Amino acid sequence: SGRLEQADMIPVLQDKTLCIDATHPYATQVTQNIREAAAQAGVVYKRLLRPASQLPQGCLVAANAQEAVRMLQSMEGNVLLTTGAKELLPFALLGKERLYARVLPLESSLHACAQAGIQPAHIIAMQGPFGAELNKALLHQYSIRYLVTKDGGSPGGFWEKWEASQACDVQMVVIRRPEEDGESYQDVLDFCKEWMAGCR
């Protein structure tokens, strides 16, 4: 619980035998830290992959935030960022007048918004999950033309964002997941069952 650096993870893992990393698919630094901490603690490590969404036709897809910015620089209209506070800074190039950010209601999120030049009146600090109706209301309220998101799958509210963007004639821009190695839920579950059976 809470944010841990790699050095903080090692004592947590030292008296364990198995570590399952089920962190967010975009949390690449955290996954690297967990993997290395598990190795140092001598703990078996498994990376659980969240299934990617089958992205619907009509989405613009970017490899990362920087590519999404390059796409949007040639387009006009307000942009709603739902990528998380850590991804805001590159979007500052688009100009503060057109940027709106939906972030967690945390001091660190507000600080990230300030660093990206996002005006206080353009910050939507809310804790999800968000249904399609609330997404629609926000798109209307702020005259949004582009919604930028990550492929967080169903747990990340991807389809509710898609439904809202379609209903409001808003272009969705999806930042593609980073490539990573790991295993499916079923494979990790089967491994755990075998592991527990061997502990009896």
Question: How much beta, percentage-wise?
Answer: 15-25%
Q: What is the CATH topology assignment of the largest domain?
A: Rossmann fold
Kindly report the name of the CATH homologous superfamily of the largest domain: HUPs
Q: Which series of helices and strands comes N to C?
A: HEHEEHEEHEHEHEH
General form = elongated
User: What structural class do helix, strand and pairing data support?
Assistant: alpha/beta
Give the fraction of residues assigned to helices: 25-40%
What's the N-to-C terminus distance?
Answer: 29 Å
**Which strand order does the major sheet show?**
3-8-7-4-5-6
On the 0 to 100 scale, the average pLDDT is: 90
CATH architecture annotation of the largest domain = 3-Layer(aba) Sandwich
Can you walk through the features of this model?
By secondary structure, this protein is an alpha/beta fold. The chain folds into two domains: 6-49 and 180-198, no CATH class; 60-175, HUPs (Rossmann fold, 3-Layer(aba) Sandwich), CATH 3.40.50.620. The protein has helices at residues 6-13, 28-41, 65-73, 107-115, 132-141, 158-167, 185-198, and strands spanning 18-21, 44-47, 60-62, 78-81, 99-103, 123-125, 144-150, 171-175. The chain has a six-stranded parallel beta sheet with strand order 3-8-7-4-5-6, with helices on both faces. α1 packs across α2 and α5 crosses α6. The protein is elongated. The chain starts with 5 loop residues before the first helix and ends with a helix. 26% of the residues are buried. The model has no long low-confidence stretch (mean pLDDT 90).
